[in-house]
Amino acid sequence: MISAAVVTASVRVTLLSDIHYDPQYGTTKAFSQCVTSNSSVWGVAGCDTSPQLIQRALDDVSRQGTSFIFYGGDWQRHDYHNSGLAPAALFTDLSERFRNVTVDGSHGTVAFSASLGNNDVVPDYYFEWESAASVQELTARVQAMETAGLLTATEAGVMEKCGYYTYEKATLHVIVLHTLLWAFRLRPYLSDAVADPCSQFAFLKSELQKVRDSGKRAVILGHVPPGLDTYKVLKGGFKTPPDDLYWKPEYLSAYDAIIYAYKDVVALQLFGHTHRFALQVFPANGVLSIILPAISPIFSNNPSYLLADFREKDWFLQDVRIRYSTRDGVFHAGTSAKAALKISADLASLPQLRSAVKKLATDDEAWKNYLQMYCGGETRPEVFPGEACDAHCRYVVVCSMLESNYTSIQNCVADFFADSSEAPCRTSPGVVATILIFSVMVLAVAVLLVRMARSGQTTLACHNFTKVGWWRSLLSIRPTSSIVVETELHVPA
């Protein structure tokens, strides 16, 4: 008989992201093509989330009996600034829905923490913390969360400054970051001289020191993740860091240095934005990051979210399992990260996780299992550009989880190709340009030789190139040549 003392108590947490709530779904004011009452409310690729799908997802969350809900941002539908909706309208509605989700009560009747995404500012990606307009937009959303009971007055007072705050519980601090501040796509564009936008790095370091001093653990919660924009690279190939990376490298380095210095107290990092599940096992900061799947089906993924089990005494992550809907409004239990990666231990060891993620490049069974989570519960080729994932695609996906440095990612892909029997199927733009120029030159020489032959020229000399008469002679055709050509082309009746 097993003693109860050896049974490890766990805490289950719901991890959601990217709802992109469209309250105008099914009307002429909806985002994208879902503008009629005939649009399926359970999810259409190219559209955001209907009120019915949101409620079905949150009802499913209520049935799981979790202790906490962590939300990774992007509350609002795409193109919100053209919706005609008031600044706080969607946050007011969705905050009430979150407030009514049932948790197990072990940490309070409302155990909720959330970040803001790039679609939660207006216009998209626009945030200027010294601008009255940006501050007003942010304050309206924060106040809606506070009114619904999702934020305390203290949390709201901090969050309405720059979008970051800390959610404190007895053994855990959830440090919520506004990672848009570190993104290449932030507008207005920040000068490279701005070393700490809105003092967020100072805030992060201070909060982590508090966690260490109190003997607690921390979870980092943000929206835009570090690392590679995998979809963009799969669609157009590697270009430049500003094109292909989410964060500016100088901000990534500063963040990694802080997390690495406090990796003894950081249990996990959580991000959203990509609408694809991923495990980031970057050695530069030494702590696992999970990119959360999306409820919105806009990018052909299934609506999905995660259930995470933590060891209660130290918040070590044991496993995460996906729950998903197959466009019928019914949520199903999917595979878990441990099952997909074919590992038996908890997800607390970064070296072990790096080894398991690396094997995805060569282990077809593990890769197939992982794709189910990546796509939202089941394999959906349409989530990839061209609706297929070849060897290059596979290596880019794997390397984007192993490395955050741009050059290291490219080297990782090259190394996998060097170790495999398959050759890369992508040609760089420089090589394509060289081939094109050479082809034009060859064609020009061929045309020149044909004109010489037809004009009776037999010698190609450099000094002829400067003579106008020589060039004019190429345009004339000797009669004998014409007769020969006509004879060769004549076919008797």
Automatic annotation (TrEMBL):
Coiled coil: none annotated. It comes from the Eukaryota. Residues 12-276 form the Calcineurin-like phosphoesterase domain. Keywords: Glycoprotein, Hydrolase, Membrane, Transmembrane, Transmembrane helix. InterPro entries: Calcineurin-like_PHP, Metallo-depent_PP-like. The chain crosses the membrane at residues 430-450. The keyword Membrane applies. GO terms for molecular function: hydrolase activity. This is Calcineurin-like phosphoesterase domain-containing protein. The lineage of its organism: Eukaryota, Discoba, Euglenozoa, Kinetoplastea, Metakinetoplastina.
